[in-house]
Every structure is written in structure tokens, then in C-alpha cells.
Design goal:
By secondary structure, this protein is mostly helical. Helices cover about 75% and strands about 0% of the residues.
Length: about 110
């Protein structure tokens, strides 16, 4: 029993350290796990996991939408610049001293 548990924990640790780190908010797995824990407390673990997964997907969608909007603005200011939209959004934030969530995509979402 102890060897099996140790092997599972070791495999989980190895799997989490092999994933490259990204500066994006958590998606379905992260929010789904939190929702499952919250749902477990309320005796609805599966519903909590599904709700958490949906919330995580929505948060990540909003983040990527904002990053694409910032990248488009960065392309207007610096035509011909190469890089991913995430890199351009980070450069746009650095030039304009913006915090995540305050960009052009976020402003239009908060008004609706």
C-alpha cells in the first residue's frame, strides 16, 4: 500500500514538473479541481468540478482575448514585429505600464 501510494505521488510530481510554465490563468483542470473540492464539501463534487471547469475555461478565454487585442495594438505601433500574441501583449503591457485585466479587451467586457 505504501509503495503504491509513493509511486503515485512520485508520478504526479514528475508529471507536474515536466509541464512548461505559462503566464496564463488556470484552465479546466485547475478550476475543476478547486470546484470539485468545493463541491465535495457541499456533497456535489461532480457538479462542482463541472462548474469549476466551465469557469476556468471562461477565465482563460477572457485572458487570451485581451492578449490578442493588446497584440493587435502592439502590431499597429510596431509593424513587422515577430513573436507570439502573448509576447506582444507582454511587450505592450511593459510599454504602457498596464496590469493584466486592464487592457483593451477587458475594458469592453466590463461595460456589458
Amino acid at each position: 500500500m505504501n509503495r503504491t501510494l509513493l509511486a503515485l505521488l512520485s508520478a504526479a510530481l514528475l508529471a507536474t514538473t515536466a509541464v512548461p510554465v505559462q503566464a496564463e490563468p488556470g484552465g479546466c483542470l485547475k478550476y475543476g479541481a478547486v470546484g470539485a473540492v468545493g463541491g465535495h464539501v457541499a456533497h456535489h463534487g461532480v457538479l462542482g468540478a463541472v462548474g469549476g471547469c466551465a469557469a476556468g475555461m471562461y477565465v482563460r478565454h477572457k485572458y487570451r482575448k485581451e492578449a490578442r487585442a493588446k497584440a493587435a495594438l502592439y502590431d499597429q505601433e510596431h509593424p513587422g514585429t515577430r513573436g507570439s500574441y502573448a509576447q506582444k501583449a507582454t511587450a505592450y503591457d511593459a510599454e504602457h505600464s498596464m496590469k493584466p485585466g486592464e487592457g483593451p479587451g477587458a475594458a469592453s467586457d466590463s461595460q456589458h
